[in-house]
Amino acid sequence: MQNESVIRRRDLLALIGTIAGSSAMYHAMTSLGFASESAYKGPLKLAGDVKGASVLILGAGLAGMTAALELRKAGYKVQILEFNSRAGGRNWSIRGGDSFVELGGFRQTSQFEQGLYLNPGPWRIPYHHRALLDYCRRLNVTLEPFIQLNHNAYLHATRAFGGKPQRFRSIKADFQGGVSELLAKITQQGRLDETVGKEDQEILLQSLRDWGALDRDYKYNANLVSASSAVMRAIPAAA
Fold it and tell me: Torsion angle, CA of 42/80/83/113, rounded to 10 degrees?
């Protein structure tokens, strides 16, 4: 009789993805060794006695097209069958004028301005996907830098700073400087109450809760909130 308390890896990863999102699932896969760095060392060199053999590939996604490219270089006759009217599989871009039919039959047409686009599938290539990056270089595929944090961007709130947008770098510097000053005053018992009123204390507590992923009791514990915060902080370092 199978032990019902045993959970399969596939089910565990699916549960993590459902609760904490795809980023958390990806990092879990990395920890378990299922999404480790690519061992790719260079272009493939297929060998063998072709003898006019033909290969039929189902699907013009990245895997199908890569297989077709390498097999054709090795001398095989290759044909790809694709269900959709475009190549790329899950990898595609929507630009102005492009139309897409939803599963329910509803058709949408993009109204993006020229130069703007949306990647509804994968939208970033991790640095350790060495094989994919090598194919991009060899095939002259144009790549764009992915900026996850722009310190020169503007933050805007109608009820803050008179509704005038502020640079992110300025807000971050003032926030971290102010918090550091308050924490320094805490070490000097009694001085915090002298300079910070009740309203300021509430603002500070709310900021600390968001900044440090604290729970309702302002404690840092292992939970989904802190896990999500850790994942988001780890992403820029790996990009």
Answer: 50
* Residue 61 CB burial class (10 angstroms; 0-12, 13-18, ≥19): buried
**Cα–Cα distance for residue pair 194/91, rounded to 1 Å:** 58
Burial annotation 34-52 (CB, 10 A radius, 16+ → b, else e): eeeeeeeeeeeeeeeeeee
User: Which one, of 86, 94, 144, lies nearest residue 116 by Cα?
Assistant: 94
Read off the tokens for 158: 């109608």
Tell me how far apart the alpha carbons of residues 101 and 93 are, in angstroms, rounded to a whole number: 14
Rounded to whole angstroms, how far apart are CA atoms 104 and 29? Answer: 33
pLDDT in tens, 183-230: 666 655 565 556 656 776 676 677 676 666 677 776 766 555 545 544
Q: Measuring CA to CA, how many Å separate 44 from each of 131, 136, 174?
A: 10, 15, 52
Kindly report the backbone phi and psi dihedral angles of residue 175, in degrees, each rounded to the nearest multiple of 5, phi listed first: -65, -50
For the four alpha carbons of 227, 229, 232 and 235, in that order, the dihedral sign comes to: negative
Name 99's Cβ contacts closer than 8 Å, sequence gap at least 6. Answer: 107, 108, 109, 110
Q: Rounded to the nearest 5°, which phi and psi values hold at 36?
A: -75, 175
Global pTM reads 0.56
Amino acid sitting at position 196: V
Question: In a 3-state reduction of DSSP, which class is residue 36?
Answer: coil
DSSP character string of 41-88: -S-----S--TT-EEEEE--BHHHHHHHHHHHHTT-EEEEE-SSSSSB
